[in-house]
Specification:
homodimer; mainly alpha; 3-stranded antiparallel β-sheet; two-stranded antiparallel ribbon; 7 strands; 60% helix; globular; DNA-binding
Chain lengths: 253, 253
DNA sequence: ACTTTGGAAATTATGCATTTTATATTGTAA
DNA sequence: TTACAATATAAAATGCATAATTTCCAAAGT
């Protein structure tokens, strides 16, 4: 992990993981000089990393005007979730149809690891632990991998990573108690029993519930009781992005 | 088309269109200096363009070893085609369900333009005309756009563009006579009649036939008088991952 | 025949010059 | 005095040329 083959790739990987973890606020300006100092690399490396991230959709590039963190929006989350349900369903059906013993074993292993990894790094602050995030990612990855289609898995990974931004963004805000272990276990059981319909239904419910929690958290933060008037002080900073202006999610801290 | 907002974006667009048209042979080394001279820009712009294209999977980046044109392979084409069938089906069903009058009108218009655009720029050499390629792209684009899902349309576009490399690669080799106009017309008719099952079935046949023509052309070129052997090695990795070596398609010219 | 060593070429990284954009200041008019 | 506008200053992004590693290729030596 600490041996990136080039400075450019190292900067890319670091910046990407920080973006996925929402360490940068959506819509925030990404100044090249700041990033140069932060990662101790030249501007070429930073620019190249930003270009790649832009083509992946994690940052937006405004010509002659630099780069910004890609915005989050409730509309985009709804769309993303629906599409992700469709793609995960394709993966799951394929995996259940074609998955062999190797797949089954990996699913069992990934489930075990997931259910035995502590969820919270800081229970009070409700911050997800990196280990749990990792285990969660590999569980879903392994579950889908059985379909054996590189392209389908690639599309799935793209959607998963974009969902991750929303998940991390609202992680600490989550106030709903849900039995994540049970959800994951039931999905895995249905898949291993080759019950496609049930597995897909459970997966869809799983994804939609996660999205609903994020959406509820955002809307309750926007209009709790019209009390928080200090939510957006002077630096209101409403950059007119090219698309998805409506209902944009902004950072609250 | 002649007003790219920056040199970088201009170089990116040009190089991309040349890659899609297979003006560079798959697997070919892309030397930065050559590209600098060819596009009359600095190495920064070229490097940035290559980075973006790498993250889109059109070129592969080998650390400390530069960039190469992403390889083509029969396994990748088979997988790509299957996934594309699934995604186009999702778009089509969504469009048929949600598409309104505006969508219908655009489909009719795109079909008209498509069927009235000459297919070949050079009949003897069987080279597709750029106008036809454009009309063909917008027809499929418009047909899918009715679903109204930005993410789904994005995934569709990614797959379409990657298919384009295979299409252009084998364009001049195509020896099969097919009634493309009829295929497109029947798809559009079924969609406008809201016959999802028929539309999807026709679309799948359309895509699979196109792929089959490419595969036949390649195999007949490789082993002119031998039967096509269908092997399925299992270690095909993601498009931006390590390249798949087996059964790679190389340039014959 | 195989390994080692040398040189050439290409990629990678950095710093600087140029051009564009954003901000602040000042001046003018209502 | 306030509001608006034009200019000037500052900051940032873009592009390029050069420097420094690394890799590749070939020739020489064991």
């Amino acid at each position: 992990m600490e041996s990136p083959t080039s400075l450019t790739h190292g900067a890319y990987a670091e910046l990407r993981s920080e973006l996925l973890a929402c360490n940068f606020a959506p819509g925030e300006k990404l100044k090249i000089d700041d990033l140069c100092r932060r990662f101790a690399v030249g501007s070429s490396a930073v620019r190249e990393a930003l270009s790649r991230l832009a083509s992946e959709g994690f940052v937006v590039s405004e010509p002659q005007r630099g780069f910004r963190v890609a915005p989050l929006s409730v509309d985009a989350l709804r769309d993303l979730t629906d599409v992700r349900c469709s793609i995960e369903a394709l993966c799951l059906r394929g995996a259940i149809e074609k998955g062999g013993l190797e797949w089954q074993s990996q699913v069992v292993a990934a489930l075990h690891r997931l259910t035995h990894t502590p969820v919270w790094a800081d229970k009070a602050a409700r911050r997800y632990s990196n280990e749990y995030a990792r285990a969660h990612e590999t569980f879903h990855e392994v579950l889908a991998a059985g379909c054996g289609s590189p392209w389908l898995l690639h599309l799935r990974a793209v959607l998963f990573n974009h969902s991750a931004r929303y998940r991390w963004f609202t992680g600490p805000l989550s106030k709903v108690d849900r039995d994540l272990d049970k959800e994951h276990r039931e999905i895995a059981e249905a898949a291993l029993l080759r019950d496609s319909e049930r597995a897909v239904a459970l997966m869809n419910a799983h994804l939609q519930l996660t999205a609903k929690i994020v959406l509820d958290a955002v809307s309750s933060e926007r209009e709790p009781a019209a009390r928080s008037s200090r939510a957006k002080p002077g630096k209101a900073h409403a950059p007119d992005g090219p698309n998805l202006k409506r209902k944009r999610i902004t950072a609250s801290a």
